[in-house]
Amino acid sequence: MNQLKTEIIALCDYANVSREGKLNINGIFDELRIQKFPGGIARAFLVATINGEPNVQHNLTLKVERENGGSPRGEAGKTPLKDLNLNAMTSPNGKSNLLIELVNLGFEKEGNYRFKIYNEGREIGSTLLKVFQQQGKYSIKDIKLPN
User: Fold this and answer.
1) Which member of 13, 103, 125, 146 has the greatest number of CB atoms within 10 A?
2) What angle do CA 21, 57, 115 make, to 5 degrees?
């Protein structure tokens, strides 16, 4: 019996599955710069590819946890995302693509936020989003990329 696991997990600007069944992931990111807290992002996608036993229904849970500070609850008691229950069926090859659209994802304060997918209470994959306050204003010509 294959234990369910993630092969790909990422936050991105947009994702879809083509008519041919190809997974398209655009604009992968792991940092979010916010000018003023509370702040956030209007729209993003969490994308994951899971792999396990063929033709099996799985009840998954997506949770967001703030590292080094427990729950991501701010002073107002808000979380960036309430626990989200997902149903996923693996295909005959044992894989399934998950595309979760996240709308108005808000953060009360800076920190490292881990997006975790659980299957029956066991973590099967995660990705980290670093949220911090952008200091000052900059333009695209101010950004220096490494060679």
Assistant:
1) 125
2) 75
Amino acid making up residue 1: M
pLDDT given for residue 95 in this prediction: 95
- Banded model confidence at residue 74, pLDDT cuts 50, 70, 90: very low
**Sheet bearing 84-89, strands edge to edge:** 31-34, 122-133, 111-119, 57-66, 84-89
Tell me: pLDDT of 142 over 80: no
Mean pLDDT of 16-40: 94
Whole-number mean pLDDT of the chain?
Answer: 88
- State whether CATH 2.60.40.1930 applies to domain 5-133: yes
The verdict on pTM exceeding 0.90 is: no
The torsion angles phi and psi of 33, rounded to 5 degrees, stand at: -100, 125
33-38: list long-range contacts, CB under 8 Å, 24+ apart. Answer: 33/132, 33/133, 33/134, 34/107, 34/131, 34/132, 34/133, 34/134, 35/133, 35/134, 36/133, 37/107, 37/108, 37/109, 37/110, 37/133, 38/74, 38/78, 38/106, 38/107, 38/108, 38/109
